[in-house]
Amino acid sequence: xxxxxxxxxxxxxxxxxxxxxxxxxxxxxxxxxxxIALWRFNEATGNTAYDISGNGNHIIIxxxxxxxxxGAVGLRFNGTxxxxxxxxxxxxxxxxxxxxxxxxxIISFTLYTGEYFQPxxxxxxxxxQFGLTSDRYLFGKSxxxxxxxxxxxxxxxxxDCAGMVGRLFINDSLVACDKWMPGADSIAEGxxxxxxxxxxxxxxxxxxxxxxxxxxxxxxxxxxxxxxNPAVDFIVKPDTFQFVTYLTAQDTDHxxxxxxxxxxxxxxxxxxFSASVTIDTRGVAGGQRLPLSFIVGDGRSGTDTVxxxxxxxxxxxxxxxxxxxxxxxxxxxxxxxxxIRTSDPDSDTVTCALAQGxxxxxxxxxxxxxxxxxxxxxxxxxxxxxCDEWGKADTLSFVLTVVGSVFENRFDYLQPFGDTIIYExxxxxxxxxxTYGNDSTGFTYFWxxxxxxxxxxxxxxxxxxxxxxxxxxxxxxxxxxxxxxxxSYTWRITIRNTSLPPVLVDxxxxxxxxxxxxxxxxxxxxxxxxxxxxxxxxxxEDSLFNRHWGFIDSISDxxxxxxxxxxxxxxxxxxxxxWRVSARDTTDYNIGVSKETGxxxxxxxxDISVENAGPxxxxxxxxxxxxxxxxxxxxxxxxxxxxxxxxxITIRDIQGRLIIKRDYGIIDPGxxxxxxxxxxxxxxSIPTGVYIYTLKAGTWIQTKKMLLIQ
Length: 710
Fold this sequence. Notes:
Layout: E1 9-13, E2 35-39, E3 48-49, E4 59-62, E5 66-69, E6 72-77, E7 83-85, E8 97-108, E9 115-120, E10 131-132, E11 137-138, E12 141-142, E13 154-162, E14 165-170, E15 173-179, E16 193-195, E17 204-213, E18 227-228, E19 234-235, E20 243-246, E21 249-250, E22 258-263, E23 268-270, E24 276-279, E25 288-297, E26 303-312, E27 321-322, E28 329-331, E29 336-339, E30 342-343, E31 350-356, E32 362-364, E33 367-370, E34 378-388, E35 393-403, E36 409-415, E37 420-423, E38 427-436, E39 444-449, E40 452-455, E41 459-463, E42 473-482, E43 485-496, E44 503-506, E45 511-513, E46 518-522, E47 533-540, E48 548-555, E49 559-561, H1 562-565, E50 575-585, E51 590-593, E52 598-602, E53 608-614, E54 622-623, E55 634-641, E56 645-653, E57 658-667, E58 670-677, E59 689-697, E60 700-708
Parallel strand pairs: 1-16, 19-26, 28-35, 37-43, 45-52
Antiparallel strand pairs: 1-9, 2-17, 3-4, 4-7, 5-6, 6-17, 7-16, 8-13, 8-17, 9-10, 11-12, 13-14, 14-15, 18-21, 20-24, 22-25, 23-24, 25-26, 27-30, 29-33, 31-34, 32-33, 34-35, 36-38, 38-41, 39-40, 39-42, 42-43, 44-46, 46-49, 47-48, 47-50, 50-51, 50-52, 53-58, 54-55, 55-58, 56-57, 56-59, 59-60
């Protein structure tokens, strides 16, 4: 194959750009290892534009017109015979890939003349043109509507080519891509020309920089190698004159493909372009199997190979024959097996192949097998091919009929059975067991929840989404597969509300409380309307909540002060109290009773309170007389504690009956007084009379009398 020679001549039918000498020119392109020419036109005068790439591709300018424009120095082409060109350069020859880039500004152009940005690899100036013509056509596509192609604006134009694909970019945006093929004859191999095609003084273009590279600058244009289409062995009889067949390949780059033989006898030829294979077996002995190998290339280092066999059967070769035949009707639950027996009159090696059959049928060596399922009842076409080593073959075709089975697939066990109601924040297991007759093996399972896959075993688990999922409906489905059969079951799951009862906060177990102490709790149920809540407190004598002391109902806050919510008689003093709280809201949503066992030691209400009476440390224990005396309803009794001691106060009536006893625990030395308010037990609950009060501090005891007048 004659190697095509790619040389590069470029005609830019464009007007050149001007530069502002008073300002430093901005460089748009740089020199790198792929640059073979770069002209910046910074000279601003003279008849030479120097190539700064180091390759010496300097341009000679005729009719030069240097201009300044928007800070850029460049050349103007105004429709005269102005032009510039390089001398022949080896660096511009043989470029299988290249990129031409330029910065241009279109001032004006006229109909039918136009200015072209035109690469030439041939002497035929119509071989390929692209650019800004008067009608703005490129690759047969109009660019008139392209917003990049406007006059009086600097734009970047780039053309790159690899193989047979050319692409045009304006301001780095791809505007056209098509097959591109150079012409056959060259007018100036290795010469760059920049100028104007068709003189017309009404045309006016500027050009600033031009760079030519030996690679595609837009690197997404990477060559893709051709690929052979699948090919089968060639079978050609002996003494055959010019047997013709074809190989085919695909190339996504539209490159011109070239074919050649790598391995094979001389009597096989392949056309370099059409890939037609001609085989002439005249004088070639039969009974041969010859390896063949072919290569395809795109001219740009992209290649692919294909290997196959040339089979030349012996003269008079006869085909093999079937010696066994299959059954043609089976039950749906029966495995089909056909052992293929063959004979060959030439004692050739025979192989078997399944040409047609139902899904799931397989051929292993000489054994054809299939396990049908109930869903494939009916007729199925089957074809088996036997072939000797020289390509002689015979085919056995038959209809295999599948009749109904006495068994069917079914779910032997499902849990839960039927649609189910569950509660928030619960975990529910689902089970399924499918059987065929009594056989539960061979099944695979696929579970979904609301069509989302969750499991491939015989079970799955549904976890609800917390305490705000009440009212949701979910669908849990399972499908069991066995061979080609399947069966499914779906549960409808409705989620109901699960209430969260109150949680006790304070007091913690074994705390000691007084009449002014508080009980508190908290609510975390998101469905509970706290702003419309009603709470109830219950008090018990025992931890089993059997013996009831009393209750407080319709509390609106999550705390309660004992002496503000309870009557004096409700709770015993100096005793262990068990309590719990229940809650409901005005929508009658009841979240139940707290689960903890609340317990505290209740001392007494505030009818007797002790307070410090002043500084100092007494020398001895003392119990003073109450004032006023007689009193109603409040009296105050002073006392002194000489040393740190456990202190208690007792009040009895004149008959010795206990009215009140208070244990204050250990008190530091000091002067104190206690106040007794008889109304805290209700007006008139303590009658007029003489009462005896006793102070005990450690082992020290003293008693005095007081008079209450109601």
